[in-house]
Amino acid sequence: MVFNSPVFVIFLIIVFALYWGPFAKKYKAQNLLIVLASYFFYGWWDWRFLSLLLFSSIIDFTTAIYIQQTNKKNTRKFLLGISLVTNLGLLAVFKYYDFFVTSFIEAFSFFNITLNAFTLNIILPVGISFYTFQTLSYTIDVYRKQLIATKDFIAFSAFVSFFPQLVAGPIERATHLLPQFQKPRIFDNQIAISGLKLMAWGFFKKIVIADNVARFVEIVYKNPENFHGSAIILGTLFFSIQIYCDFSGYSDIAIGCSRLFGFDLMKNFNAPYFASSPREFWRKWHISLSTWFRDYLYIPLGGNKTTFRRTQFNLLLTFIISGLWHGANLTFVIWGYLHGMVMNLQNVFTHYKIKLVIPKPIAILFTFLFISFAWIFFRAENVHDAFLIINNMFHASTKAEMDILFKDLVSPLMLVASLSLFLIMEVSISNEKLRKLFTNQPAVIRWSGYYFIIFWIIIFGAWNVKPNFIYFQF
Fold first, then answer.
1. Please, what is the average pLDDT of the chain?
2. Which of 73, 184, 257, 404 has the most CB within a 10 Å radius?
3. Any residues with CB less than 8 A from the CB of 341 and at least 6 apart, and which?
4. DSSP state of 394
């Protein structure tokens, strides 16, 4: 089930009505409703994978209780190990087994050694990377004594499976979200309205922007050998726009939807393309994942509290693993490596106190161009296609190529107008003065703006495309 589908609208109305109707006075009953609704939501894709979700929940719920009950260091480590091995083992089997086996075979082929190995060819469960990291944060925090293990399995299951953010985040920390399931919720009209507004903006980014530029990206990246120069540059820049609007749009809908049920989820994006450096970009992009890797991988490795060389290694390794988290493909490893190397370069300048005086608009532009270049490896089907795209980028495109790109576009003016509206809104939302200027306007002006966005979604939304989100594949 996806957010931008009629089925989800019906599902949301029914769950909302039950949650604040018959179940309103007992928060434990609300938690049970959320668990049932979330399992139905997830099972809509493939009910067979519900067993994985339930199994992970049982393992982490149980191990955390036993970790809480003992002060023996070795026992605590052993129990944490059970959680880590179980969760990461499931992730490895379903997401990475075939990748590593295939890579192993290809490595030996360079030496003219032919190996035959068994591959699974199994379907990747939707959202497994997201809920695995979320439930792992719980057992790790209990192990670190930063959180008291809960004995309420329903509340814990609701935390793990909460349908608004189950399949694509934000990846919530147990210290933030779990306590919200352990206390009564009171319906707040203003919070609910703010949630609906945020959902509307999320739908605008997804349906009007991401899905409309997706066709350009698809044409170029499915047939990279047929495009050159400006056609490839346009397709790549459009992918930068697509992935941001697609993923941040999902996050906005998830956060807004959670407010309808009285929950607060963390902010996942903060105008990342206005960042003036790669370091700032990663403080603004997919915040829930970047902070997860910081707290549970980079810092345990030693972070920056060690030698400079070790810090550089820790940072590079973190980004490479982050790339691999996104997918079992060498392209994601290279993407992570590029970001890690640029972050290391920035650290070199900081370490040796080398100051570059670059006007902020220029710094923002260069940062965006690097991010967009790195996206080539993220989007390409394989490494060969990625380097082919980079090579073809430096050859002139033909009129025929551009005609192919714009062949089915109903109205170029509509696309330009939508992108312009998106840019204006992004600037306004990220700028506190402009945001306050709008919120201080009379209600009639503000609500006219909200209804205008809804009207634009209905009229100019790409309703004829498959309603999936990019990050569902991770």
1. 90
2. 257
3. 316
4. T
d(CA 202, CA 153): 32
Question: How far apart, in Å, are the Cα atoms of 294 and each of 172, 300, 331?
Answer: 14, 9, 22
Beta carbons of 397 and 230 less than 8 angstroms apart: yes
φ, ψ dihedrals at 8, nearest 5°: -65, -40
For the stretch 204-230, pLDDT in tens is 999 999 999 998 999 999 999 999 999
pLDDT digits (tens, 9 = 90+) for 103-127: 555 555 555 665 565 555 667 788 8
What is the reported pTM? Answer: 0.92
pLDDT for the residue numbered 405: 83
Average pLDDT over residues 338-353: 93
Query: Phi and psi (nearest 5°) for 359?
Result: -55, 140
Catalytically active residues, by annotation: 326
- Burial of 440 from C-beta contacts in 10 A (0-12 / 13-18 / 19+): exposed
State the greatest distance between any 2 C-alpha atoms of the chain, in Å, as a whole number: 74
The Cα angle at residue 131 between residues 209 and 241, in degrees rounded to 5? 15
Residues 36, 40: Cα–Cα separation, whole Å = 6
Compute the radius of gyration of the chain from its Cα atoms: 23
Coil, helix or strand for 352? coil
